[in-house]
Every structure is written in structure tokens, then in C-alpha cells.
Amino acid sequence: MPVSSTYLLRRLLYMIISIIGVSVFGFILFRIVPGDPVLMMVSPTASLEDIEALRHQLGFDRPLYIQYVNWFRDFLSGSFGTSIRYNTDVLELVTSRLPATLELVIVSILVAFVIGVLIGVISAVKSGSWADRILTGFSFLGFSLPHFLWGIVFIVIFGAIAHLLPVSGRIDIDFEVTPITGFILIDSLVSGNLAAFKSALAHIALPAISLALSLIAILHRTLKSSMLDVLGEDYIFTDRMKGLPERKIIFERALRNALIPTITILGVQFTFLMGGSIIIEYIFGWPGMGTLLFTAVQYKDLPLLQGIVMVYALIVVLTNFLVDLTYTIINPKIELR
Amino acid sequence: MLLKVQDLKVSFATPKRMIPTLHRVSFDLDYGEVLGLVGESGTGKSITGKSILRLLPPNGMITGGKILFKKRDLVGLRESEMRKIRGKEISAVQQDPLSSLNPAFRIKDQMTDILTLHTDMSEKEAEEHVIQLLNQVGIKDARSVINKYPHQLSGGMCQRVMIAIAFSCSPSLVIADEPTTALDVITQALVIELMKRMQEENNTSIIFITHDISLASKICERIAVMHKGEVVEIGKTEEVLFNPKHEYTRLLINSIPKIEKEIRTIFNGVET
Amino acid sequence: MSSEEFITESLFEGFKSILSIKVIFGLIVLIILFSTAILAPVISPFDPNEQRLNEAYKPPFWVKGGDKNYILGTDSLGRDIFSRLVYGARVAAVVAVVATILTAITGILVGLLSGFFGGKVDQIFMRLVDIWMSFPPVLFALALIAILGVGLKNVILAIAIIDWTRFARVVRAEVINIKEKDFILADKAVGMSNTHIIFREILPNTIPIIIILATLEMSIAITVEILLSYVGLGVKAFTPSWGSMISEGLAYFRIGWWGMLFPMLATIVVILGLNSLGDGLREKIDPRLSLMR
User: Fold this and answer.
1) Which chains are within 8 Å of A by 3+ CB pairs?
2) Burial of A128 (0-12, 13-18, 19+ CB in 10 A)
3) Domain ranges of chain A
């Protein structure tokens, strides 16, 4: 389907405005530090020369607008400076942690999608039954309680009481998986190391489910209501009139229509789960960008903090752009404004 | 006798109570006969049609009576048995052709499914048969149409497709529920003509549900008039039309615009 | 319909069947939370920070080894858990009220202006909202705390800086809806001033939605406070917060389960209660309003 080119341009313009806005915002955010940002970053025992050297290195001794221009130029070229804590390039640090975060979020979305769609269909087909009521209650819980509370509940139940699943890290330290994609589940499978794959799977289970619960609840709600709408449609009557088996009608004919509003939610939810993953990583010791963020905060590592904030924001801006595009492509009947 | 509906009762459940909707509906239908079910909206015509298919909305249920189809009572028949009858023995055409086809599937998928289900045709054979069927209902470029989605076709086209689906397994009974109401006047006439031709070619019985008694008189041999969930009058079309016994039937006939009535008389005169 | 009639009608529609189970549950939780917060000094038997190291790790009174004085037991420093829980409710309630008022004021103002004037004003505000929402809230909060430093005031400030966008978007949509209504068009026709129309005619009609949003905002504010305190970036050390109690309790979980259980339960009940209130009100007042986080 051809997408109107003016719409595309406008959306692209919005994205560019957003990126510039985000960069200005990030710049201001880290200049409003009460007192001297440089003093925040050094140890109390640092000498005056050390402080001035760092100030010069960060460019904080130049006029504000020059600082912004330099910052924006660096931002575009992906150079966020050097981490004070690790003494490494910030972008390098962040990108080395990115796959772990993405793996967690993507696995959560997959889990949520499968479970959410399944219970959504059950709730719609058995609408009003006890199964529907239980699922609706569960879904209210999943929706209401924040990710980090679920994380703690799971740690206590599965980790501390039942010792069923590991509650920290990505994989047992005994395993050595050579990074190919950075996604440990894929890497261990590709290298044929099944034991490592099992360990990685066990490690991701609890954080992924903690993160997935809210999305499961949202998918359950949306799918139930859209499925109920679809099941009342004339074309479903047509299929029943043909004598088609109910299973085929529900899972093939009705589901494909009911999924359209559901899929559009996934994009927005991706960014929402990116945000939620931060605290989940902290709770489960998951070595992604979230734990890196906590390190940055703890050590007042401003360049690292700034880099992480910008990377998260850019991921959100890009995702929103892509979601809008795919939405208009999969649903050609939508009005383009 | 193909179908004998006896004292059919249907009720709908609301959160507070059961609301009786059909009270003792009775009529019968012979092989190859076209029966009109006429009445205003809300008189229970569609409910009657859906009861015969046993496809009432979730809150509706048959509370009494019999539906004898080929001497088998459909009321109380197991759902799995009912599915063997639907589509193969009894099928239906609905009011709005565009919404009765699934927007997310190609025409092909929505036509071959009924054939592979009720006959022993393979996917391929079914597809060939579908093309034949579409030609039969007057769609010429059938080969390209089967690969299209419903929203790419006109309303009239979609209704032709629906008629082809309804007749595809040569059922003994087709329930046509206001099949022309959503169409423009010219397409209406074409669709009526098509249904009549299909009916004659296959010797199918049709229950033609409509609010328009003049339209019913054009295609039906007998007419049953429904009012408030009951059949108040049933008889040969001419008798019902020219010698109505029930007050409500008279009202229905009087509501036909005069000019149309005159044209119809002339038209009918020429035809017979 | 005059604006008064419109308001009374919508309020009436709201109250008529407003009391569902969800709403009643939520109101009870809310009342308990606030009365505990206000009456904290009266209710709590001990100073929440009073340490008795030789009385540490006492289980709740009904468990073997428990002490009738410490009904929910003591923590690793021998502080009374019940008293800390009660003062923790005070922290939660303060954050809920103050942060919600601050976010509401900013958000409603932006929403009203953006929705009423439309055009350029709307464009600018909505781009700003977009940019704001590009930063995941938890990340935003952590960055702000890193810059501002820990403490109750800064937690509230951070929430106010982050979360006004929710009010702004929903109020804007509602204003766009209302401003096409007859009585507003009539007001415009007779030449009423914009300020009068916005604050006297439109604002009162957005109140039902603002109440729903405020309820949900309270639950979010409490969540953020507890989360930040849990990771040690919320209230200052020794201020009793449910979040820091949970993380301390987890640390000595193997010695005593009660340390984390009670603040955890309190958190869950309060958050469920507020969500249930918001959800229940939404179902009754405005089922169309989607629950965006």
C-alpha cells in the first residue's frame, strides 16, 4: 500500500524535532545540577588542579551555547564522552549492555503476546464464565501492580522460598558462551550448547515474567473486547452458517481481525517495557543498560548517565516513528493526517 | 415436505428475565418452494431464520416447538450433527454483503473452505469449482476476483459471492435474510433475478425474509406474514396480496406506494 | 443546555451508580491510608527510629518468640515494624497528595490552553509532551534524583517534573470535546472572555476526568516513591518508607520473613486500592477513557 508522502515527511519532521528536543533537554538536564557539576563528579579528596583538568576535559569552562553546539555535534556522532567510573567510551559501554536489555524486553513481549492472546480469546469465548472472571481479576492485578513489586514477589516465592529458579544474572558463571549476536539465548543455541541455553532460559524466566505481566493484562483486556466485537460480526455468522468448526472460526477467522488493534499496542508497549526493564534489571542483577544506569547514578558518573538517558530516549523516539509507519502500512484504511 | 416448523418458541435472556420473542411460529415448506417471510423489523423474521440454522445470538434460546427438516427435528440435535447440516443442507444469505464477508481473508479462502469441508474435493479442485460457481453467478473475471479482498469489490459483487457460497454445496434450503436491502435499486433487481435462477437450476427451497411485501410477491409462491413474533397469515401469494384476511397484512399492503403497485400489476400482467 | 445543567447532569450521571465494589474498596483503602497518616503519632506505639539492638529480629506477637509490645515484630536494628509502617503511610500519603496536586496543576493548565487555543500553541505543547514522554519515567526519575539528590522534597519534585504530561494529554482531549458543545459556542457568540470560558465554563466540566486521573496519579506517585526508596534513592536514610523497609527486609529475609512482608502487603493493598478506585470511577464516569500509563 502506498503511504502518502506528505504524511511520511511530516512524521519524519516530527521525529527530527523530537531528536533535537531530546538533545536540548538532555543538555539542560545535566546543566541544572545545583552547584558545580564537576565537584559532583570528583572525589572529595581531589586536588584543585584535578578539578580544573576535569572541567576543561568536559568543556564546562566554555560559554553555554558553545557547550550545546559541541554537545549536539558529539551527540550526532554518537560520542558521549568518557565514563568517569569505568574510564571507557560511554557509547561503547552502553552498546555492550544493550543486547542484554533488548533480549529481556523482547522475550517479555513474546511471552506476554502468547499468554495474553490465549487468555484474551478464552475470556471472550467463555465471556461471563468463572474462567473469564478469574482471568479478569488476574488481569486487574497484573495491570495494577508495578513491575518492581512483581519482581520482588517472584524473588521471594521462587528464589528465597522454593529455590525453583535463579534470581540473579543471565546465566550460570560456569558457562562460557561466545557472543555472536549478544543475545545469550540465541548464541548458546547457535553454538550448540544446550546446557547453557537451559541455564540462560532459567535465568530469564523470572525477570521476563515480572516484566510481561502488565502487558499480559493489557493484551487480555484489548483482545477480549476486540474479540467480542468480532465474534458478533456478520462474517462470523457466515462462517458458522457454512458449518465450519468453531476452533477454526475463532483461531483463524476471528483472531486475525481481532489482532489488529492488539498489534498496534505492542509498539507503545515496547517503549513502556524498556522503561520497566530498568528496575527489573536492578532487582534481578541483569547486566543490561538498567544496571549500568544504577552504577552511573551511584558513582555520579554524569557522562555515562547522560549517554544512557539519551540512548533510551532515542530508542523511544525511533520506535514511535516506526510504529506509526507500520500502523499506516498494515491498516491502509486509516486516515492519514 | 422439506421443512415443517411447529409451534416454535424463542426467548432472549436479559440480566433480569427471559423475554419471549417468538410465540408458536408454525409453517411448512415443500421441496423447491419459495416462501416469503414478511413483516416489519422486530417481528421475529430473522430470529425464525436463525433458529432454523440453530445460530441464535448467545443470549437467545429455543424454548419450545419443533423444526422438522427432512423429518429430523433440528431442535435438540447435537451441535456436531448440526454442523454437518449447516452449509451443506441449509445455508443462508445475509443483508449486508460487505460485512458478511471477512475483511482479512481473500475471496478464495472464504469460498473453498465450505467445499473442502462438506465434499471430498481437494484445495485445487475446490478452487476450480469456485471459479465455475462465480461464473455461474455472473462474475466474469473470476480468476482475478478470487484473489481479491472483500473491500476491493462492490456491494453487488459481494452479494453475488455470498449467493455463490450459499448455493455452492447445492443445499436443499437457503435462508435469504433481506438479501437486497443494502443494495441500490438496479443491483437489487439483478440479485433477485440471480437468486431466482439459482433456485430454479438447483431446485432449492428458499425462505425469503423481507419487510417488503411487494418484493416478496415478485419471487415467492407463498407468503407468511409475521407480526409480534407470530405468523398471522399464510397462503398463496395472490391470495395474501389480493384477499388479505388479517388486519396487519392489509396495513402492510397499503404501505406499498401506489404507483409501484400499478406498475407491478402491469408487469405481472405481462409476465403471466 | 446551559453549562450549569450540563455540569449537574454529568455529576448526577456520575453519582447515580458510582458506588461499585471497586470504588467502595478503593475509598476504604484511601480513608485508612489518610487517617493512619494523620494519626501516625497517636497510633504508633514507638518512635519509628528508636533502636534497641538487643530486641532485634523479634517476630510478630502471634509467632513463637514474639513480644506483645511489638505486634508486627522488630527489624534488624530492633525498631518496631508497626510504628515504621504507620509512619511510612505518612510518607506515602504526603507524596501522593503533594505530587498529585503539582502534576495536576501543570498538566491541567497545559491541557486547557492547548485544547482551547489549538493551532500553534497546541502544536508546541504537544511536541513538548512528545519529547517529555521520550524519557522512560523510571529513567527520568533516577536521572533527576542523581542531579537533585535524595530526600522527600526531591522525590516529589521529580514526580511533578515527570508526570504532568498525563494530565495534559487527557485534559486537552476532553477540552477539544467540550469546546464544541452548544453552551460554549453560545458563550463565544455573546463575547465572553477566553479566561472566563476556560476557567468558568470548560474547567468545571473536566472535573470528573480530573478526579479519575488524580486517583491514578496518587497510585503512581506512591509507586515511584516506594521504588526510589527501595533502591536507596528516595527518602533520606532513617525516614521510614515502605520502599526502604522492603529492601531492608529482603536483606534479612532468611532470619525473618516479617520484615519485608508487612510493608509489601501495605504497598500492594494501597496501590490496588487506588487503582481499583480509579478504574471503578472510570467504568462509571467515562468508559471511553483509556488507561494509559
Assistant:
1) B, C
2) exposed
3) 90-330
d(CA B163, CA B166): 5
Q: Which residues of A touch B55 (CB under 8 A)?
A: 237, 240-241
Query: A290, A282 in Cβ contact below 8 A?
Result: yes
Measured between beta carbons, which residues in chain A are less than 8 angstroms from residue B168?
Answer: none
Q: How far is A244 from chain B (nearest CA, A)?
A: 7
- Protein fold of A90-330: MetI-like fold (1.10.3720)
Chain A residue numbers with beta carbons less than 8 Å from the beta carbon of C158 are none
Q: Which ipTM value was assigned to this complex?
A: 0.90
Domains delineated in chain C? 29-292 (1.10.3720.10)
Q: Give dist(CA B7, CA A330) in Å, integer.
A: 50
Q: What count of residues does chain C have? A: 293
What is the nearest CA distance from A314 to chain C, expressed in angstroms? 8
Q: How far is CA C214 from the centre of its chain?
A: 7
> Which amino acid is located at A251 in the chain?
F
Which is nearest to C259 in space by CA: A152, A69, B201, B197?
Answer: A152
Sequence-separated (6 or more) residues with CB below 8 Å from residue B131:
B142, B143, B146
Per-residue pLDDT of chain A (337 residues; tens, 9 = 90+): 445 677 778 888 888 988 888 888 888 877 766 666 677 666 667 778 878 887 777 777 777 788 888 888 888 887 888 888 888 898 999 999 999 999 999 999 999 999 999 999 999 999 888 999 999 999 988 888 999 999 999 988 887 777 788 888 888 877 877 888 888 888 888 888 888 888 898 999 999 999 999 999 999 999 999 999 999 999 999 999 999 999 999 999 999 999 888 887 888 899 999 999 999 999 999 999 999 999 998 888 888 888 899 899 999 999 988 888 877 766 544 443 3
Bridge partners, A1 (sequence order): none
